[in-house]
User: What shape does this take?
Amino acid sequence: MTSPNNADPVLAAGCVLWRRSPADGGLELCLVHRPRYDDWSFPKGKLKRGEEPLAGALREVEEETGHRCAPGARLPTAHYTVQGRPKRVDYWAAEATGGRFEPNDEVDRVRWLPPTEARDRLTQPRDQRLVDALLDVLNSA
Assistant: This one.
């Protein structure tokens, strides 16, 4: 068995999960807290061998948040380096369609926040740009 080339990117996918607030109908985005990194981000994860990015994104959303979702528009792809290796994360807008969060080893908390609060809570600036991309998609629909 050959080991992966360090130049080969790690492939991952995720969603900017959104819903209408049950309280006031305002837009809310779902952020996940990963205790391993003590960060706030959107649900995402590595693809399984041969897995299509959208299928992986939907799987990761359900695994990390307990929510099913309806995928929408493609959002910008994030490119960055992790431990010296390039990583590529494909993202989609996705509306939550049901489910319930249960804390797990990967994600111990989720927060549903209005876009401005979500942008401020996100740990990485690259994730903050996804908030704007989602708003552009929803406002043009």
Summary: The mean pLDDT is 94. The CA atoms of residues 28 and 140 lie 17 Å apart.
